[in-house]
């Protein structure tokens, strides 16, 4: 009788320990997922903050390329995580980020080009992070496909902002260029002595030895980096696209 009681006691202890360990492991996993979700929320918020700063800086640098009467509404939409602004272009109401990015990088004359870029970026971020959805309690509630697509698109967009020109050879967006470089683009570059007579060089406001403007690049890199951190939290390893893949990328309408 005593022997059976001892066996029963050991069996009971073993079962309790087994379920206790199992419960403990599940609890640890749950806490880890919850912590990861909180970190992703921080990355998302930092992404939105950087986008707002980028818009303000872009409009300041390209003052004739955005709709001033729409600007406050765009800022409010981004600040409140809403998605209600759809621009009418060529008789059609644009709704998808591909449509906005198509016009942002079209090499023809596009009025208010800044707005297409910012709205395209925002709609892309809004969908990837599901900004209009419910609060995420675990990291695995985030959409891996959309976040991976966001990281891919951001690499393409960054490249296009740096390099794309219109059909007259002018950069679509003035970002990295110094003022004297923008001034030079409007001059006859066949004259080798023209640089020293440029307004910003002549007035000693800038030097040809001065580094390019990296402030836009820093802001955009922050956005890209926060998405990269997000992907790692949902167990996806981000990858850098090749230059050839970026150059051949097309925003499908």
UniProtKB/TrEMBL annotation:
Organism listed in the record: Poseidonibacter parvus
Protein name: Lipoprotein
């Amino acid at each position: 009788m005593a022997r059976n009681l001892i066996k029963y006691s050991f069996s009971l202890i073993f079962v309790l320990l087994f379920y206790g360990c199992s419960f403990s492991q599940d609890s640890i996993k749950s806490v880890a997922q919850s912590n990861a979700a909180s970190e992703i929320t921080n990355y998302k918020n930092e992404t939105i903050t950087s986008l707002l700063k980028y818009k303000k800086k872009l409009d300041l640098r390209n003052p004739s390329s955005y709709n001033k009467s729409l600007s406050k509404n765009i800022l409010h939409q981004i600040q409140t995580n809403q998605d209600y602004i759809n621009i009418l272009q060529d008789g059609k109401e644009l709704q998808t980020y591909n449509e906005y990015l198509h016009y942002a990088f079209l090499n023809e004359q596009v009025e208010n080009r800044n707005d297409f870029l910012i709205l395209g970026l925002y709609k892309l971020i809004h969908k990837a992070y599901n900004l209009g959805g419910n609060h995420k309690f675990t990291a695995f509630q985030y959409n891996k496909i959309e976040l991976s697509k966001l990281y891919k698109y951001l690499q393409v967009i960054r490249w296009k902002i740096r390099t794309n020109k219109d059909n007259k050879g002018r950069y679509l967006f003035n970002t990295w260029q110094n003022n004297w470089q923008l001034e030079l683009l409007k001059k006859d570059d066949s004259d080798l002595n023209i640089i020293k007579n440029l307004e910003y060089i002549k007035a000693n406001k800038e030097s040809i030895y001065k580094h390019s403007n990296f402030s836009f690049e820093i802001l955009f890199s922050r956005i890209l980096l926060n998405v990269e951190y997000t992907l790692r939290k949902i167990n996806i390893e981000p990858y850098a696209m090749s230059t050839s893949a970026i150059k051949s990328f097309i925003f499908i309408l």
